[in-house]
Write a structure and sequence with these properties.
There is one protein chain. The longest helix has 21 residues, at 230-250. It is built from 12 helices and 21 strands. The protein has 448 residues and is of the alpha/beta class. The protein binds ligand LLP. Ligand LLP binds at residues 79, 81-82, 100, 123, 182, 221, 224-225, 260-263, 304-308, 344, 348, 405, 409.
Length: 448
């Protein structure tokens, strides 16, 4: 099953609708609106208010299934940091995925939603003592060791009769990803232990010396929004080299290799995505070959996609509050959200596409900057968008590919509450997370 949907075009000036389409496969352009999973975005905006994040449940689920079908022998873990709520946790669980979490909040939410703890992997470069204790109490399947000092701390919570499986996060020296801030496969950044200088092998020795720890394998995460398979193939070779070094020193064939996430999706029409079929065709074969050459047992592959499952399932819907025509000829359409619900453009220069929904317009398109409501000139959601010249206050704008790293990184800037999230499926919409109200914000004020 491929992750590339083929269906009618949602942009009038999009050259080839099948290439790099950021919309969920169920999205349709109808008279005066866009529907997702049969639900009109304008209708959803009226019912739940704006800004609204609409999540296409079947898109999320079918992406989980596409991963499992493409890589039947691998363990696929959904990276919760992309976006987590109870419903999403259940969808991932029902589709047979594991879950990668990296905080007490993500762990407790998953546990409360009934996610099987043995399928949870706990990550983090700064796990608190409380997080480690909680992980042990909930019996999470694996904890990823990120640092030497963590080894005795985790070990202290175990015993030979109640052991803990751990993975060791290493830095394979592969640079990949859309922005420097997310390139984690190279040394000089905060995650994991370097392969080159022997740090990783030192960590292996220390883990193996702990009777309560079971080293089940190695982990690496190269970066995010990676468009080609090559970096993963290079990482496989380097990781196989390290697995062989572990075997040479300890006589151990580690049974698992986790390659992390990072698979790219399109944000604007024509954007390249990582080809899942190509990944599935090349990576396991490369791993098997690399292991065979070194006379190693081939470990089971684990992967942790977050964005590639969640981003295309989400559409953000905003209401235009003001349209400003400047004397310099620029047009700004200011909406009721912005960098507090989507910090990605400001943080990484991320590009998005945007579309008028809720009414048809025959006016020609003009270049418009869609800006947020926050107190910074850099609060620009979509720079140079093509939108109807008659765009006006009250209109609705929809931004596809909004399901990952927007709400999960949302802030309380300007005390604008975080948006509501609604799931859509089979022509029905239901609220998953209610809007954060001013009352919610005021409720945290202790000294009033
Ligand atoms: N595994 C680990 C250990 C990770 O650190 C991450 C993402 C993933 C898996 C999932 O990566 P994905 O498949 O979603 O690319 N806020 C940034 C992305 C940060 C990614 C952090 N780690 C952005 O909006 O582009």
């Amino acid at each position: 099953m491929s992750l590339t949907p083929v269906r009618p075009c949602l942009y009038t000036d999009q050259p080839d609708p099948a290439v790099g389409d950021p919309w969920p496969a169920s999205a349709r352009s109808t008279a005066g609106d866009v529907t997702v999973a049969g639900v009109g975005l304008a209708e959803a905006a009226d019912r739940f208010g704006t800004p609204l994040y609409v999540l296409d449940e079947d898109e999320f689920r079918s992406r989980c299934r596409a991963y499992r079908t493409a890589l039947p022998a691998a363990e696929v873990l959904y990276a919760a940091k992309a976006f987590l709520c109870s419903a999403v946790t259940r969808w991932a669980a029902e589709e047979g995925l594991g879950l990668d979490v990296c905080s007490e909040g993500e762990l407790r939410l998953a546990a409360a939603a009934g996610f099987p703890p043995e399928r949870i992997v706990l990550h983090g470069n700064a796990k608190s003592p409380a997080e480690l204790r909680l992980a042990r109490r909930l019996r999470v399947g694996r904890i990823v060791v990120d640092d030497l000092a963590e080894i005795p701390r985790i070990a202290a919570l175990t015993s030979p009769t109640a052991p803990q499986r751990v993975l060791l996060r290493v830095v394979p020296g592969v640079a990949a990803g859309h922005h420097e801030a997310v390139r984690t496969g190279v040394t000089g950044q905060k995650f994991g232990l370097a392969v080159d200088d022997g740090e990783a092998l030192d960590a292996v020795r220390r883990i193996l010396a702990q009777p309560g720890l079971v080293l089940s394998g190695l982990h690496c995460h190269l970066g995010s929004q990676i468009t080609t398979v090559e970096p993963y193939l290079t990482a496989v070779d380097r990781m196989a080299g390290l697995l062989a070094a572990v075997r040479d020193e300890h006589g151990l064939h580690l049974p698992e290799l986790d390659l992390g996430g990072g698979h790219a999706v399109p944000y604007v029409p024509g954007d390249e995505a990582l080809d899942l079929d190509e990944f599935a065709a090349l990576v396991p074969v490369r791993l098997a070959d690399a292991c065979k050459r070194r006379r190693l047992d081939t470990p089971r592959l684990l992967i942790e996609p977050g964005r590639a499952i969640a981003a295309p399932a989400g559409v953000a819907v905003y209401r235009v509050l003001a349209v400003k025509h400047t004397s310099g000829g620029r047009i700004f359409a200011a909406v009721d959200g912005g960098m507090s619900d989507n910090p990605r453009p400001a943080l990484y220069g991320a590009r998005y596409s945007v579309r008028l929904v809720g009414r048809d317009s025959t006016a020609a398109n003009r270049e418009v900057d869609v800006v947020g409501r926050h107190c910074e000139a850099g609060d620009i959601l979509v720079r140079g968008a093509r939108l109807s010249a008659d765009l006006r206050a009250g209109d609705l704008l929809a931004v596809p590919a909004s399901g990952a790293y927007q709400l999960s990184m949302a802030s309380g800037y300007n005390l604008v509450g975080r948006p509501a999230v609604a799931a859509v499926r089979d022509g029905r919409a239901r609220l998953l997370i209610r809007r954060e109200s001013v009352e919610d914000l005021l409720a945290r004020e202790v000294d009033r």
